[in-house]
TrEMBL record:
GO terms for molecular function: ATP binding; ATP hydrolysis activity; ATP-dependent peptidase activity; metal ion binding; metallopeptidase activity. This is Cell division protein FtsH. Its cofactor is Zn(2+). The keyword ATP-binding applies. It comes from Candidatus Nomurabacteria bacterium CG10_big_fil_rev_8_21_14_0_10_03_31_7. The lineage of its organism: Bacteria, Candidatus Nomuraibacteriota. It holds the Pfam family AAA. The chain crosses the membrane at residues 99-123. GO terms for cellular component: plasma membrane. The keyword Hydrolase applies. Belongs to the AAA ATPase family.
Length: 324
């Protein structure tokens, strides 16, 4: 942003310098110039294309124009200047060529076009950025922990106590490590597990330890992050979360404080409750869409299991509760 503004200011300054008003000079007609040359008043003439820069013996500088497709000598001869008078005047012809000649003459015409192109380019970037920001409302805000990241990896050894809970969750770890063994014997693995317990008992840490023991990606977000002020955002984020999880399977989805979106439906009125219920409905639909080949386990944590919707706790969804 700052770099673009700086470039724009530099280009503007160059344009003002190049296209600035030239120093005021007096223009002399070619007929009067011929009389001045005949009178011996002219010191030198600089020819630049059709432009003539005339320097008089009193150091006065004037400009004039010669005839098109005619040399200066021929033009002055036509106006009656004798060869003797012309030879007493220094005439210098400057060729119209070189890099700086074209820069000085073309750049003033190109700069307005460059300004317009730069303006529309900058405007399109701003519009695109705003559009991407608008579309990002429906994307999942889940934080993903890479199983290969040793700095953030957590295992059961990092969790003090909770022996019974660890034993119950080891089945999940074994399934994520070797799902084929369970499928071959027809074993049924729960699609979802709810960790319940008082605040501060280590529910989130235990969920991370399950992912660390299994060596699978860990998608972590809070239930309150699903719901926004815009209608349909929560359901869209649920779809995006499960879509990413299926691509990264085997993996674990962890929804902390699931009671923020999993409360019993029909308990309130208003748009916020409708949006929360739509989000919950989408979670139920996504969990019903799991098949035996989908190696995605959904873990959730709450300290209010009594307020959860019964549909969340039925078989095939969060049908196992682990008390911490």
């Amino acid at each position: 942003m700052f770099g673009a503004i700086l470039i724009f200011m530099i280009i503007t300054a160059l344009y003002l310098v190049i296209s600035g008003s030239p120093e005021s000079t007096t223009e002399v007609f070619i007929s009067d110039l011929a009389k001045n040359v005949t009178a011996g008043e002219v010191k030198s003439i600089l020819v630049e294309g059709e432009k003539l820069t005339v320097t008089y013996k009193d150091n006065t500088v004037k400009v004039s124009k010669k005839e098109i497709e005619s040399s200066l000598s021929q033009t002055l001869f036509n106006y009656g200047v004798k060869p003797e008078a012309l030879s007493a005047t220094s005439i210098e012809v400057k060729n119209e060529s070189g890099f700086w000649y074209w820069i000085v003459n073309i750049l003033p015409f190109l700069l307005p076009i460059i300004f317009i192109i730069f303006f529309f380019w900058y405007l399109s970037r701003q519009v695109k950025g705003a559009g991407m920001q608008a579309f990002s409302f429906g994307q999942s805000k889940a934080r993903i922990t890479d199983p290969n990241d040793k700095n953030n990896k957590v295992t059961f050894k990092d969790v003090a106590g909770c022996k019974e809970a660890k034993e119950e969750l080891k089945e999940i770890v074994d399934f994520l490590k070797n799902p084929k063994k369970f499928l071959d014997i027809g074993a049924r693995i729960p699609k979802g597990v709810i960790l319940t317990g008082a605040p501060g008992t280590g529910k989130t840490l235990l969920a991370r330890a399950v992912a660390g023991e299994a060596g699978v990606p860990f998608f972590h977000l809070s239930g309150s992050e699903f719901v926004e002020m815009f209608v349909g955002v929560g359901a869209s984020r649920v779809r995006d979360l499960f879509k990413k999880a299926k691509k990264a399977s085997p993996c674990i989805i962890f929804i902390d404080e699931i009671d923020a979106v999993g409360r019993q439906r029909g308990a309130g009125l208003g748009g916020s409750h409708d949006e929360r219920e739509q989000t919950l409905n989408q979670i139920l639909v996504e969990m019903d869409g799991f098949d035996n080949q989908t190696n995605v386990i959904v873990l959730a944590a709450t300290n209010r299991p009594d307020v959860l919707d019964p549909a969340l706790l039925r078989p095939g969804r969060f049908d196992r509760q682990v008390v911490i």
